[in-house]
Structure formats: structure tokens, C-alpha cells
TrEMBL record:
Keywords: Glycosidase, Hydrolase. It is an enzyme of class 3 (hydrolase). GO terms for cellular component: cytosol. The keyword Transmembrane helix does not apply. Belongs to the glycosyl hydrolase 1 family. It comes from the Bacteria. This is Beta-galactosidase. SUPFAM superfamilies: (Trans)glycosidases (SSF51445). GO terms for biological process: carbohydrate catabolic process. It comes from Streptomyces formicae. One of its GO terms (molecular function) is beta-glucosidase activity. Pfam families: Glyco_hydro_1 (PF00232).
Length: 401
């Protein structure tokens, strides 16, 4: 027996996501550029030219539109727009405006992310997110982005995965390198409060630019699953790492759900995946059902707020593209089931449009589109044709029982 495919809801976003630092190349004014060229870090290789998408974005958008996608989420680089404190680059603002216009010309609705993990070096040097006036400085940058987002941008994301920002800040304060075998390190509480304040300030600025822009942020959902008897332990573990950031989205126009795998929690805390579990190139457990659990949990936390959900990242790091298709089939079956159950889901954006710089290494291949590191030539994978083709049918497939 095969389930009947689920039609896309009206206005459903169907696309792929990227982040500026991971694909543009040569973001020399960012804090990450400094990290990549420092010793004593987990970073295996620097980003350098990355995919050269700073110059080759028209080709990237051409491919996405040709493949059948209708939406493209990309970020703009704060360190380019404000390379020195209080000094804004008109040329860079014009560059990102051309990207917005280029997307629209190709029939791609742009979702613009204002902050995707990187900050200007000057912002980091003065204390980063925990500096006294960080929210005001971020809001000033958002206001300066008006020429980019004021016209034709229906969705804006203020900050990508703020919970991971707080986690990484906690690591930095403790001098930790690398993540534990299971679960996430303890987030820095001061950074948590700071990024929430910055988000709320940014939401006000975006709405001042144009109240019609739908604004929100995205959360890295770890799909914490309690083993029998560990429900209270799981709730206590999850709240500072995830739920506090979901709850901060009350009053937003949408919230982004981003998930890749699961984390099981026992009486003593996180439990590594079994030795025989299939793992991806990031060493995460292969678990396509993660996105369904993440959607349902996020909806439950915000049940009284009515905030629409958008899957803003979901995918798999693998060199086996057939396995990538299998993962997407399983994930989309979960999305379809959530829609059947009445969840308000406004779109699905795969991670990632391109193989890219995964914060320290080019080895984890998440992309629907491969590229040559010598010539930068782009080659869509079979998974790109399969996933993009669903944008033409406007239906989510269901797996056979």
C-alpha cells in the first residue's frame, strides 16, 4: 500500500539553504577567518575561496531555478557590510541587493538570513554578543540592511541557530575543543540572554523597515529522546540547549526548525548511538525521522502562540547520493505526516544547495550540487534533480507501508 502524496499548502516554500561564509569565499573581515588561521583549534582547513559564490551566485541561482526549486535561503555577511565599526559599505549592500533581485528574476523567493554564525572582527574584539551594547549594534546593522531587504524579500531570518552560538560561547569560555561523544556542551547563559535580546531588537528593526516582511529565527533541534524513566532528566537537559530559544520566538511571524539526527537521553544524560548504527560523514546517527520529531516538539512548545513552522535546514552529509535521496524520502514522509496531522508548516528548505565549508572542513558533503575545487564548475547531483522535481509536482511523496 502506498500513501497518497500530500499537496503543498498554499504558498509553501520549496528550496535549499546556504550561508555566506560557507560558500562565498574570502570573508577576511570575519571572526571565523581569524579562527581558521589560528593554531590550537579544531579547524582542519581554512575556507579560503570556498565555492566562490560571492562571484558565482548567478550560476547557483540558475541551477536551483532550473531544478524546480521556488525558494532560496541565503545569508548576508555582516563583516562585509560593516567591515569597520560604524562604517557601512554601500558597494556590499548593493551586491546583496543584486542577489535579491537576481533571485526574484529567476522565480526564486529570497529568504535572507542576517546572521549565520559569523560576526565582524571588530565586534568580536569588543566582547561579541556579551558586550554591553551588542543588541544595539546588531540592530543598527539590521537597520542598515534596509536597501537589501526592503523590497521583494518576504522572509527574513535574524539569527541562525542561536542555541549553537551559546553552546560555542560556553566552550570558548571553558577552553574546550570539540564536542562530547553525545549531546551538546552547556550553553553560556550570558550569551543566551544576549542573543535573545539581539533577536528581539532585530525583529523591531525589520518590522520598521516593512511590517509585511515575515521575520523569525531558526533553532538547531537535537531531537532529545528520553529513555524510559529519564523524562525529567531530558526536559532539564533540553531546556537551556533548545526550548528557551524556541520560547523566545513567541510573537514572531515564523520559526525555523533545523534537524539532522537525534540525541537519546538516559538517567545519566546523553547516550552515544550504538556502535552498529549507520553514521553520516559528520559521525551523526542516520535518522531521517528527526525532522518530524523536531517539528512536533517545536509546535508543542509554541502551541499557545500559533507561530508557523518552516523547515529551514534538513539534510545529510554523505558521499553516497542514493543514500541522500533515501534520507530525504524518509524526512519528507515525516513532514507530510505532520501536515496531515494539522501542523502549520510553511515550507521545506534543504541543507545545502552546495557542498560547502562545514565550519572547519570541506569533507562533510551536504550539498545537492557538487563543485570542482580547481575550476569551480557546478554539477547537480541526482538528489538535486529528484528533490527539485518535487517543486514541479507540488506534492510531498509518502513512503510505502
Amino acid at each position: 500500500m502506498t500513501h497518497t502524496p500530500i499537496p503543498f499548502p498554499e504558498g509553501f516554500l520549496w528550496g535549499a539553504s546556504t550561508a555566506a561564509h560557507q560558500i562565498e569565499g574570502n570573508n577576511t573581515n570575519s571572526d571565523w577567518w581569524v579562527k581558521e588561521h589560528s593554531t590550537g583549534t579544531h579547524i582542519q582547513e581554512p575556507s579560503l575561496d570556498a565555492c566562490d559564490s560571492y562571484h558565482r551566485w548567478p550560476k547557483d541561482m540558475d541551477l536551483l531555478a532550473e531544478l524546480g526549486f521556488t525558494d532560496y535561503r541565503f545569508s548576508i555577511e555582516w563583516a562585509r557590510i560593516e567591515p569597520a565599526e560604524g562604517r557601512f559599505s554601500r558597494a556590499e549592500l548593493a551586491h546583496y541587493r543584486r542577489m535579491v533581485e537576481g533571485a526574484i528574476e529567476r522565480g526564486l523567493r529570497p529568504m535572507v538570513t542576517l546572521h549565520h554564525f559569523t560576526v565582524p572582527q571588530w565586534f568580536e574584539a569588543r566582547g561579541g554578543w556579551t558586550a554591553e551594547d551588542s543588541a544595539e549594534l546588531f540592530a543598527r546593522y539590521v537597520a542598515a540592511c534596509a536597501p537589501v531587504i526592503a523590497d521583494g524579500v518576504p522572509y527574513v531570518c535574524t539569527i541562525n541557530e542561536p542555541n549553537m552560538i551559546a553552546v560555542m560561547a560556553g566552550q570558548a569560555k571553558r577552553g574546550d575543543i570539540g564536542f562530547p561523544p553525545a549531546g551538546l556542551p552547556t550553553p553560556d547563559d550570558e550569551t543566551t540572554h544576549a542573543v535573545i535580546a539581539a533577536h528581539h531588537a532585530a525583529v523591531k528593526e525589520v518590522r520598521a523597515i516593512d511590517p509585511a516582511i515575515r521575520v523569525g529565527w531558526t533553532v538547531a533541534n537535537q531531537v532529545y529522546q528520553a529513555l524510559p524513566g529519564a523524562e525529567e532528566v531530558t526536559a532539564a537537559y533540553r531546556h537551556p540547549r533548545e526550548d528557551v530559544f524556541i520560547e523566545a520566538a513567541r510573537g514572531d511571524d515564523w520559526i525555523g526548525v533545523q534537524s539532522y539526527t537525534r540525541t537519546r537521553i538516559g538517567a545519566e544524560g546523553p547516550i552515544p548511538a550504538p556502535d552498529d548504527a549507520e553514521r553520516t560523514l559528520t559521525q551523526w546517527e542516520y535518522y531521517p525521522a528527526a525532522v518530524g520529531h523536531a517539528l512536533r516538539h517545536t509546535a508543542a512548545v509554541l502551541a499557545d502562540a500559533g507561530v508557523p513552522l518552516i523547515v529551514t535546514e534538513n539534510g545529510i552529509a554523505t558521499d553516497d547520493d542514493a543514500r541522500r535521496v533515501d534520507y530525504y524520502k524518509g524526512a519528507l514522509d515525516e513532514v507530510a505526516a505532520c501536515l496531515e496531522d494539522g501542523l502549520n508548516i510553511g515550507g521545506y528548505l534543504a541543507w545545502s544547495a552546495l557542498d560547502n565549508y562545514e565550519w572547519g572542513s570541506y569533507a562533510p558533503a551536504f550539498g545537492l550540487i557538487a563543485w570542482d575545487r580547481e575550476t569551480f564548475a557546478r554539477t547537480p547531483k541526482p538528489s538535486a534533480h529528484w528533490l527539485g522535481g518535487l517543486g514541479r509536482t507540488r506534492e510531498l511523496p509518502r513512503l510505502a507501508d
